[in-house]
Amino acid sequence: MANREKLINTALALLLPALALAAYGMGEPFYVTLATRIAILALAAAGLNLALGLGGLVSFGHAAFFGIGGYMAGIFATHAFNQTPLFTWPIEIAATDQMPVIWLVSAGVAALVALPIGLISLRTSGVYFIMITLAFAQMIYYFAISWPAYGGEDGLSITMRNGFPGVNTLDPLNYFLIAYGLLLLVLFIFTRIRDSRFGAALQAARQNEVRVASIGIRPLRIRLAAFVISAMITAVAGALFADLNRFVGPSMLSWNMSGELIVLIILGGTGRLFGPVAGAILFVLFEFALGGLTEHWQLFLGLILLGVVLFVRGGLIGLLAGKVHHG
Amino acid sequence: MSSALLIEQVLNGLQFGVMLFLMAAGLTLIFGVMGVINLAHGSLYMVGAFACAAVAAYTGSFWLGLVASLAAAAAAGAIVEVTVIRRLYSRDHLDQVLATFALILIFSEGTRWVFGSFPLYLDIPPVLQGAVSLPGGAQYQLYRLAIIAAGLVVAIGLYLLISRTRLGMRIRAGESDREMIGALGVDIASLNTIVFALGAALAGLAGALVGALQSVQVGMGEPVLILAFVVIVIGGIGSIKGALIGAILVGVVDTMGRFLLPQLLTLFMEPSQAATAGAAIASMLIYIVMAFILAVRPKGLFAVNA
Q1: Distance, in angstroms, between B99 CA and closest chain A CA?
Q2: Per CATH, is B3-116+135-296 categorized as 3.40.50?
Q3: Quick one: which of A147, A248, A282, B20 has the most CB atoms within 10 Å?
Q4: What is the value of pTM for the model shown?
Q5: Where are the domains of chain A?
Q6: Which region, left, alpha or beta, applies to residue B132 given φ > 0 means left and ψ of -120 to 50 means alpha?
Q7: Would you list the domain boundaries of chain B?
Q8: Residue whose C-alpha is closest to residue B210's, from B74, B39, B46
């Protein structure tokens, strides 16, 4: 079974660039953008998968980190475009439009926000955790709406997509390759974390908290670390997403977005390495195919989702590769 | 700042709190008895508001609309329980979140399909139009006072229902040990459906009552749902008393924060800056209060089975 999952993973990993290259070759930039969207959503969900899949932490507030990344990209792009400094006090800091810097800042800011949220919400578990993460994300959402400096309710348009050293990011294929490269990097990091001592403790804490505590590991610290790392990855995806759409608005912070990120993971397969990728492919294709048929596509998405939750446990990868193999 | 204005804001806070209580009471009952987290509770609120607006527009009577909102929300709740929620009792919370998230998509898009994207409007019934004079010379909208009264009546009714009736006894027994009351011969399946329909009816009532103050539109339920979550997290999940106190606390803190914070900040900064900063902080205030309460009591103020 494990080998079959590896085969599926390889197929999924090759499918995306194949789609992007084929679309690019046929002169269909729209489909390249669609593939980029899939890669970025998969990246965001891969971040959440670390907390949700490995750690069993059902965060219903990851849109907060996704949006934080998005706003960082928007804020940097705006300041860089207008050639105004980010801060004038206490020291003047100039903005840059270089993506690697923006990603690092996004991850850093997300970590700073995730730390207190995690500290408070991880004191609880189960439904409390779900509701509290949702509430904190909503707090950030309302803050973004009521703070007018960066667009408030209207959001921020990104006039010029941020740059990457030595690459023209305006070319859709180049931008796809950046997003896809980051996705592969994060999936690699995911496997390293999963197979590390830290990852073993995280998964053990999900399965039996008392046993983990009784052998001298504090579940809170392990979970907090996982929550923060997960938030950082999702924030980087958010920065990419804002640059893809050249727009960031409060909708990136909304509870809908948090729900969609969870949906991606469940559609693909919770805790599976390529679950987020499979889920993002399915989700974007549903959105695209159903959206072309009817403007009420969300109704059908809801029905499909309900069917998956009630009857297809384990998501697409679970369906294709069987249960998780404990080797 | 006059005392009349202050009284008005306190009453607005109470009215908001009472409305949150109607939502939170249903959520907390459903969680207490069935252990299910129901994200689609906001959709039932929306169903109530739409049923009231549609029936009131058709018959010209707000009161018939109110009856319709209770019936429609309770029916929607019962159908949802029988077809979907029932399958989720033995599942983990993740599956419950996802299935009820799917229900939100279905309800929202279904409502948009039937009623279109434009908001509906619901008039305040003639009897409750106008204002009353309060001590201190303030004028206050009669309808909002009526909402406060209705909410308090529901709170007392719920208390009596749960503490004095046979159904209430079963609900309490269900909260402490589901399997045991099943073994004693109580029909748990229909008890679940009744509790779910009851919670749904309360949400529908809240939606209908608020529908006359705001516009009735798709997506109106979710912001209220998330505030109701804050309420039951503060009050303690499963506790009706906690829901009432949490709801009033959230309603008053939120309303007073929006009113007082910008004024308070003018002491430290320029008026325009104070207005922006005050509004931004006020929008986060209840979440900050929630964080503080959780830091002290992680299970909420009135935790059941703490």
Answers
A1: 5
A2: no
A3: A248
A4: 0.91
A5: 27-255
A6: beta
A7: 3-116+135-296
A8: B46
